[in-house]
Amino acid sequence: MGRIMIYKEFIENWNKIIAYNQRLDSKGQTINSKSKEYRFPLTSLKLKAQVVHYLMKTLYPLFINDQENVLDLIISENGEKIEEIIFHRTKQSGIYHSSEKLSNDFFKLKYNLFKNLDSFFNDIQEKLLKKKKLNISHLRIVNSSAVPIINEYGDKIKTYSFKEFLIEFAALFQKLIKENLFIIYPEPTIYNFLKKFFILLNNIDLASILKYIISLLPNFNFAVLLDSDDYPLVIEVIRSLGNEGNLNFDLKLLGLDDLSLNSTALDRKNLLKEINEKLNVDYSYYVQQNQILNFLSDIFEVEVLTNKEKLKLLIEKFLYGIRSYEKVWFKIPKPFSYNTLLRFFVRIFGFQINLRKLSHWEISDFLFNTLDFYFGAEYKLLIIIKDLDLSNQKPSKKNSDSLKSTIKYTILFNVHNQSTRIIKLINNNEIPSDLSNLPEIRNELSKKYGYINYIIQIDESLIRSIIKNYIFELTSIKAFAKIKVIRRLKNDLYFKMFPELPPYKLLKEKGTLSLVRTFLPIFIDKHQF
After folding, report:
1. What is the pLDDT of residues 347-364, one digit of tens each?
2. Are 467 and 216 in contact (CB under 8 A)?
């Protein structure tokens, strides 16, 4: 590709994808059913050609652009010179049938491309129409200084595990977007979403966030059948600890033919049972592809962290999905919490537990109304995440002043007009030595960062327990584990807040079972069994 070369493996893999697309018959079915595996572009995932084709046909129009033909430009660092031009012809969005390198002087730059992208795009359309009788749907522009960065990433990608790929890809993408090294024009919603998200993160790396989130996840192995009339897919997800305590996180994407299964021979529940047995996972989920894609599309179309009303609506949609068990999703083996006899028995003791009647509207109202009433529209919230396991002595309230070494992260949220405007990671060395003295911490940090309204201190083990028991095992009946989480919330060693707002005081003063009885009628519609 001339003197500016994207790494060799990418070009070879891309040419194979194009060759495969060219071999498709007019009905969009592959002529050779025993096609080889290709790498999904810029990822560590090696997938069957049919899967790569289907993903590009499905995802690209939804998240990037649903029109035909794309133009790639590699430009100089200052944006005043075109180094390379590649025209991609597509017969449908996401499905590339040819790539043609054009002369570098095909378009004459009359201005700095970064400052006049609108005008440049219009000029391109005019010249393409005049010279080739073609239009393009969008531009993808790569700054030449990004090419060595992409190539370094590409050289390592074939050795990456899925966890390593996820973390390194996040780092790469954040760098390219934040430093304006990669541009899509016109901007798709996902690109605009990520730009705003990176601004919100300020000095925090997305890769670090992903790495930390993965470390908090419990060990699990499950499969998800993403059903579709066109091409059902199976995702196998495994998170485990290796022999030396190393964290393993892997994801595989399979077609039903990879598991020797026929989607027309079995009903969906029996098909899910077969998947569960063949993959030997703990449990399997069934959900329609369009439900997942629509929810992801909703996320990218809203300013998730900076718009309260849109975030509230998104949470309502998610909770509505959870309550729609056996309507839009189901699980193998069936959760015991959906057993009618068990729910009847539990209700005798005053506990109404029925996830099918989850009050998706009431939960979001309760959450946001509580935040608005007690926190207000403008505030700064400091969250200190610590890990008591890092302490060399058994933690207790008496030695809590020696626990500064257990701090892992200190994060400051600046909320303006009920919307998060900036998230800042604070150096742990700035925290006063007495970790139990939250008023002192507030006073000291307020001198540098402005008045801090609230401080929350939480232990990592509590976060892990919440994720495990109230997310991954939400539908399971593990009453003691779930109650243990609530008890830890009442313990200052694991959760502490300053100043102590009425909801927090209620949490500490009320008995655990009494709290459950108080909030269940809010979270679950008690008038329906």
Report:
1. 666 667 777 777 888 888
2. yes
